[in-house]
Write a structure and sequence with these properties.
This protein has 258 residues and is of the alpha/beta class. The chain contains 9 helices and 10 strands. The strands form 2 sheets. The chain has a 5-stranded mixed β-sheet with strand order 2-1-3-10-4. A 5-stranded mixed β-sheet has the order 7-6-8-5-9. The radius of gyration is 28 Å and the shape is elongated. The N and C termini lie far apart (85 Å).
Length: 258
C-alpha cells in the first residue's frame, strides 16, 4: 500500500514537471516584441546653422543608442542638396529652407521642425558703428552676406527688398558660419546671419536686431532619404530631433517652434 502511494506521488510530480516544461517552451521560442537595437552609422547632412545643436543632439542620440555612430556634414543647404543628388551616402537631410529640401529628389516626407530669424552680427564693441539694416547699402562699410543660393542669402535678399535698399557686400559666403567667422575675426564691420549664430558665438560678436527681419523668417525642414544606407537609424534620429528632448536643445539655442 505504501509503495503504491509513493509511486503515485512520484508520477504526479513528474506530470507537473512536464507541464511546467511545456509551458516554458513556447515562451522561450516566441519572438520578442521589442524594437531591434540600432547599429551602424547615421550620416546626417545638415545646414551650417545647425552645427552646434545637431552636434549636441548627435552625442545625446549616441548615448541613448549604444553602438550607433552619428556623423555630420555641415554646409550650406544648397551645396548639401547637390551632394545628395549626386549620390552622396546620406541618411538624413536637414535644410535651412524648404527650397533646398525641394531640390532633393531622394527624400521622404519633410517635416518643418524649427524657424530662424536673421540678425546683424558685428564685432565686439561695434567698431564699424553699425546702427541697422540700411548700413548694408553703405559702400564705406565692410559687409559680408551669404550668397544668393544659400538660405541665409535668399532671406537677406527678401529683407533688402522689404527695406528698399541695394546691398553693397564686400564678401559673399557659401554658408552662414563663414559669414559669422568674418565678423568674429574683425574682417568686416557687419554680417547678416541668424540670431542662433549670434548666440552661438557668445562673447565673440554682438547682435543687432531689426524689425524688417520678420519679412524673411526661415522654416527648417528635416527628412529621411529614401535611399538611406541606414534607414532604421535615419528614422530614429529624425524622431529624436522632433521629440521633446530634441526640441529642448533647439529652443535653448534660440530656434523658434515652426
Amino acid at each position: 500500500m505504501f509503495r503504491r502511494t509513493a509511486l503515485a506521488a512520484l508520477a504526479a510530480v513528474a506530470a507537473l514537471a512536464l507541464a511546467a516544461c511545456g509551458d516554458e517552451t513556447p515562451a522561450a521560442s516566441s519572438p520578442s516584441n521589442s524594437t531591434p537595437a540600432l547599429s551602424g552609422t547615421v550620416n546626417v547632412f545638415a545646414a551650417a546653422s545647425l552645427t552646434g545643436t545637431f552636434t549636441q543632439l548627435g552625442k545625446d542620440f549616441e548615448a541613448a543608442h549604444p553602438g550607433v555612430k552619428v556623423t555630420f556634414n555641415f554646409a550650406g543647404s544648397s551645396a548639401l542638396a547637390k551632394q545628395i543628388n549626386s549620390g552622396a551616402p546620406a541618411d538624413v537631410f536637414a535644410s535651412a529652407a524648404p527650397k533646398n529640401m525641394d531640390d532633393v529628389t531622394d527624400k521622404g516626407t519633410p517635416t518643418n521642425f524649427v524657424k530662424n530669424t536673421l540678425e546683424i552680427a558685428v564685432p565686439k564693441g561695434n567698431p564699424g558703428k553699425i546702427t541697422g539694416i540700411k548700413d548694408f547699402a553703405d559702400k564705406d562699410k565692410k559687409i559680408a552676406i551669404c550668397a544668393a543660393q544659400v538660405p541665409c542669402g535668399a532671406a537677406a535678399a527678401k529683407v533688402f527688398a522689404a527695406v528698399g535698399i541695394t546691398a553693397q557686400p564686400d564678401s559673399l559666403e557659401q554658408d552662414v558660419k563663414a559669414a559669422l567667422t568674418k565678423v568674429s575675426l574683425g574682417e568686416v564691420d557687419a554680417a547678416l546671419v541668424y540670431k542662433t549664430d549670434v548666440l552661438s558665438a557668445k562673447d565673440k560678436v554682438e547682435g543687432i536686431e531689426f524689425p524688417e527681419s520678420s519679412k524673411a523668417v526661415n522654416e527648417y525642414p528635416i527628412a529621411t532619404l529614401t535611399k538611406a544606407p541606414n534607414p532604421d537609424g535615419a528614422k530614429t534620429f529624425v524622431d529624436y530631433v522632433l521629440s521633446d528632448k530634441g526640441k529642448a536643445v533647439l529652443t535653448a539655442a534660440g530656434f523658434d517652434a515652426p
